[in-house]
Specification:
Blueprint (H helix, E strand, L loop, with lengths): L2 H13 L4 H17 L6 H11 L9 H10 L9 E2 L4 E8 L20 E12 L11 E12 L10 E15 L8 E12 L9 E13 L2 E10 L19 H5 L2 E9 L2 E10 L4 E13 L2 E11 L9 E10 L5
Antiparallel strand pairs: 1-3, 2-3, 2-13, 3-4, 4-5, 5-6, 6-7, 7-8, 8-9, 9-10, 10-11, 11-12, 12-13
C-alpha cells in the first residue's frame, strides 16, 4: 500500500488552515526549541517539530495523518529510518500455481523449485526538502522498495532467491483545502522504476509516471493511483539485452491501483486492486495485521491474479503467506 508516502500530503494539507496567529506561535516555538536543542539537532528537525505542534486542534486527524505526524517529528533525524510502504517478513508463502516456465532453460532449476517459499519487503523513504518548493507545505520524497522471494525450502538446489524486485521512486505531494465528508483529501504525482535486476530472458522492467489521490476519515483511508507507462524500444530479438523486456505488461498489470485500509483497535485490514478493463486481467491483494508481542505484529497476506512479482507479471495464481509485520500500514 502507499498510505505512508501519500499520507504526507494529508499531513501538509492540515497546515493550510494555519492563520497569522498560528504562524506567530510557530515562530515562538522555533526560538524556544532552538535554545533547548541538543548540539546534534538540525534546524530541519526543529522546524518539523514546530510544524506538527502548530496544527490547529480542530483539524480532523485520521488514522494516516496520526502516523505521519509522528514521522514528521523525526524524519530529519540522521539516526532514524522512516518506513515507506509496509515492511514485513513472510517465512512461508504458498501458491496454487507455481510459475516454472521462466526457469525452464536453466538446467535443474525449474523442476526443483517448491510451491512454498519465503517472501519479504523492505521499504524506506527520505524527504528531499525542508522548506516549501512550489506550494506552501508541499513535499518531495524519494522512496525505495525491495521485495524478494526466497526458495528456502528447496532441497536439490542451493536455496536461491528466485526473484528480487527493486522499485525506486520520487513523488511530489501538494496539499488541498478540500475536506469531503468531513475527511482530508490530497493530491500528488510521481515517477517510478521497477525491475528485477536480471539479464536476457529473465529480465523484467518498466517505468511509469503516476498521479495519486488519497482520502482519509477517522480510521478509514483510500488511495487511487492511475499511471502511464513510459514506452521503450522493442527488442530486435528475444535474447537482445536492449529493448522492452515485457511490452504487454499493461495487459496484466492494468492502468491503475485502488487501495483501501481500515484500522480497528490493534488490527489493520487492507486491500489493493489493479485492473485492465480491456483485457479483464488484474490482481487483488488482501492483508490483515494483528498484535503479537512488543512492536511486532502478525501479518497474513492473500494474493490472487497477475503480477505478484515482475517475473510473474503474466502469470495467474493465488498465494497466501503468514509472517511478521515490522511496520504497520498506518
Amino acid at each position: 500500500m502507499r498510505f505512508s508516502l501519500l499520507a504526507s500530503a494529508i499531513f501538509t494539507l492540515t497546515a493550510v488552515s494555519a492563520n497569522a496567529a498560528q504562524e506567530a506561535v510557530t515562530d515562538s516555538c522555533l526560538l524556544a526549541k532552538l535554545k533547548e536543542a541538543a548540539p546534534h539537532t538540525t534546524v530541519a528537525e526543529i522546524k518539523a517539530e514546530c510544524e506538527v505542534e502548530s496544527i490547529p486542534p480542530e483539524i480532523n486527524r485520521g488514522v494516516v495523518s496520526k502516523r505521519v505526524i509522528a514521522e514528521r517529528k523525526v524524519e530529519f533525524n540522521p539516526y532514524v529510518i522512516t518506513p515507506h510502504k509496509m515492511n514485513y517478513i513472510l517465512p512461508a508463502a504458498i501458491t496454487d500455481n507455481f510459475n516454472a516456465k521462466p526457469y525452464e532453460d536453466i538446467p535443474g532449476l525449474a523442476k526443483n523449485m517448491e510451491d512454498v517459499e519465503a517472501k519479504y519487503q523492505i521499504s524506506i523513504k527520505v524527504p528531499l526538502n525542508s522548506d516549501s518548493l512550489f506550494v506552501e507545505h508541499d513535499k518531495l520524497y524519494f522512496g525505495v522498495t525491495l521485495q524478494s522471494w526466497w526458495q528456502i525450502y528447496s532441497q536439490n538446489i542451493s536455496k536461491p532467491f528466485r526473484e528480487t524486485n527493486y522499485q525506486p521512486e520520487i513523488a511530489y505531494l501538494a496539499p488541498t483545502n478540500w475536506h469531503p465528508f468531513g475527511g482530508n483529501f490530497a493530491l500528488g504525482v510521481g515517477l517510478e522504476h521497477q525491475s528485477n535486476g536480471r539479464s536476457q530472458l529473465l529480465s523484467r522492467s518498466w517505468n511509469r509516471f503516476y498521479g495519486l489521490a488519497v482520502f482519509e476519515k477517522d480510521n478509514f483511508a483510500a488511495t487511487f493511483r492511475p499511471w502511464y507507462r513510459l514506452e521503450e524500444d522493442p527488442k530486435e530479438t528475444p535474447g537482445s539485452s536492449d529493448g522492452d523486456d515485457n511490452p504487454d505488461i499493461l495487459d496484466y498489470m492494468g492502468h491503475f491501483e485502488l487501495g483501501l485500509g481500515y484500522k480497528w483497535k490493534n488490527y489493520e485490514f487492507t486491500a489493493l486492486a489493479r485492473e485492465n478493463f480491456a483485457t479483464h486481467k488484474g490482481a487483488l491483494e488482501l492483508g490483515i495485521t494483528f498484535p503479537l508481542w512488543g512492536k511486532l505484529d502478525g501479518y497474513i497476506q492473500y494474493f490472487t491474479g497477475y503480477g505478484e512479482s515482475l517475473i510473474d507479471y503474466n502469470h495467474n495464481q493465488q498465494k497466501i503467506g503468514l509472517g511478521i509485520a515490522l511496520t504497520d500500514h498506518f
